[in-house]
Amino acid sequence: MDTIQITDVAPRDGLQNQPIHLGADAKLALIERLADAGVQSIEATSFVSPKAVPQMADAGEIVPRLIARLPELRTSVLVPNLKGLERAHAAGAKEIAVVLSATETMNRKNINMGLNEALRVCEQTLAQAQALGLRTRAYVAVAFDCPFEGETPLATILNLATRMHAAGADEIVIADTIGSASPGQVSARLAALRDVVPLEQLAVHLHDTRGLGAANAWAALEAGVRRFDASVGGIGGCPFAPGAAGNLATEDLVLMAERSGFSTGISLDGLLDAVDFAEAQLQRPLGGRSAAWLRRQRTKRSEV
Ligand code: COA
Ligand code: ZN
């Protein structure tokens, strides 16, 4: 069966933007529920400035506790610079992700660097991470539209993806940071990206702002991509990218993929338990577009 690999980014992309800040115990409990559901890869946290993102200030505590509890789980952490890498390595991280936005303004807003400096810092961070024996991912953010500069030129995306691949990133993650892409654009951009990065090293990271997250994931599947980021309950959004609503929900992606003959290794009931938990913690209704239907099926099953 055709297998897809899902990285659940709720603990990082999901929680970084929430008005309620979860403590380390609650974050670890959420990650345990994801692992129980069969999720094999997560983005656990980010080693960024606690002034920029106070929700992630406990990264140095999360990583060692997580590795001790769930040593088999593939755990990635986001790092914006060499200082972040140093902190991540000291905490025992085995996999890191760097983030490169495709426009000048988005890099400035997100990491206070211009595009050329961001590129150089990403390349240095990847080189240093490889020297430390870490697995690496590189995000190409705002890979469709930038909230400040509009549509991002395909030539720029291809150039940045080429540079990240040449810098040795194991995975290049094409991110629709504000959720503005449509399936035709996803097909067209991935068709071009496949020529510069081997398909098995390409991943997509989608947001569901306009309700097209699943359709975009389907376009990526048809383009041959088998690596996806998604966020349980659809929690997510970048604090520095206006208009970035929740991520493509992991339950929506798993439902679509499994019903279409792909294997994810993830249980939908297990994901619902994680959604319930996140909802109680964040004190608001959560769940992707399929969650209401999935919950009705669960209730029906419990009644027989
Ligand atoms: N982790 C923790 N602290 C860090 C850090 C990191 N990775 N990088 C820098 N710092 C600290 C510096 O030590 C310095 O501390 P001090 O004021 O106590 O001396 C302070 O932050 C400023 O350092 P500077 O290098 O001037 O950073 P900056 O103010 O230009 O901010 C970033 C740059 C990258 C650290 C900051 O913009 C950031 O963390 N951005 C992340 C945004 C994010 O997470 N976005 C969502 C995910 S894509
Ligand atoms: Zn995102």
Helix residue percentage: 40-55%
Can you list the ligands bound to this structure?
A: coenzyme A, zinc ion
Structural class estimated from helices and strands: alpha/beta
Radius of gyration: 18 Å
Number of strands: 12
Total helical segments:
12
Strand adjacency order, main sheet: 2-3-4-5-6-9-10-11
- β content, as a range? 15-25%
Give average pLDDT, whole number.
97
Brief rundown of the structure:
The protein has 304 residues and is α/β, with parallel strands linked by helices. Helix content is 44%, strand content 17%.
Description of the structure:
With 304 residues, this protein is α/β, with parallel strands linked by helices. 44% of the residues lie in helices and 17% in strands. It contains twelve helices and twelve strands. It has helices at 10-14, 24-36, 59-69, 82-90, 104-111, 115-131, 154-166, 183-193, 213-222, 250-259, 268-282, 291-303; strands at 2-3, 5-8, 41-46, 74-78, 95-101, 135-141, 145-146, 150-151, 171-176, 202-206, 227-230, 262-263. The strands form three sheets. Strands 2-3-4-5-6-9-10-11 form an eight-stranded parallel barrel, surrounded by seven helices. A two-stranded parallel ribbon has the order 1-12. Helix 2 (24-36) runs parallel beside helix 3 (59-69) and helix 8 (183-193) runs parallel beside helix 9 (213-222). It is globular. The model has no long low-confidence stretch (mean pLDDT 97). The site of coenzyme A has 19 residues, from helix 4 and helix 5.
